[in-house]
Amino acid sequence: MRHANNFILSLLMALSPMATFGQSMDDVEIVTHPVADGVYMLAGQGGNIGLITTSDGAFLIDDQFAPLTERILSAVAEVTDQPVKFVLNTHWHFDHTGGNENLAEAGVMVVAHDNVRQRLAAGQFMEFFNREVAPAPDGALPVVTFNDSITFHMGEHTIHAFHVANAHTDGDAIIHLAEADVIHAGDVVFYGLYPFIDTGSGGSLDGMIAAVGQMLELAGDQTRIIPGHGPVIGRDQLANYGEMLQTVRDRLVERMEQGQSLAEIQAAGITAEWDEDWGGGFIPPDRWLEMLYRDRQAARID
Ligand SMILES: [Zn+2]
Fold this sequence. Notes:
- Helix content is 38%, strand content 25%.
- It is α/β, with parallel strands linked by helices.
- It has a 7-stranded mixed β-sheet. It has a 5-stranded mixed β-sheet with strand order 10-11-12-13-14.
- The model is unreliable at 1-20 (pLDDT under 50).
- Residues 91, 93, 168, 187 line the site of zinc ion.
- Zinc ion binds at residues 91, 93, 168, 187.
């Protein structure tokens, strides 16, 4: 039952970024999940937020949508007296960066990978969703950007963000909290639903698999992992996720090398053992295979 509830919750969170874009968020509640000492996951609408409370201020990872900023800051104030000093965007998607402008106006420093700033500033077209995303206003752009990695030393926490190449997008950061033994995976991990890979923004399945491998190297038995969408997981669940991606990839590549068409691969049931648990999110199995197929086609042309 607990699993079912978690699943429905993750489903709702997953559906939300695309399904409710532009709609009212009046009913959205920010729910605070304790993850470790001084570390929380805030779930509302869109990507899971990481919150680290320290004696030198609070630190946010992602900020969902603009209409939720006040509610997010209220949730922060429930667990710390300290002001938010930084927000780090795990990537450019609007359900992770929508609160940037509000937070910047409130004096929060916005930080992200170089490509996040570039993509936000330029505006984007998301082919998979046939969605135009307008350029972000100047006030929403990260004011500190990094190429490879950046480290924040705040109170008792070391907050290390490092770039992983061409995974969910080309601007992904994964955040490792060594003392707290927590990883925020951003959208490199969707747990309990097939992951969106934004190939139009430089994402790739191979990059996702490699990034999961990098996280597994950092994770121990007690490590808690906050996914971009879905519930907090442990190392074993992360390993299962990586194995699913690898197995589907290998089956897909084999069939593509035999010259099978997308329709043939979709009919072959190569994701069958995961479809019940993972196929109920905003990307059903056929669409997910279509996304992976196009990704591999592009990889073969390059
Ligand atoms: Zn995303």
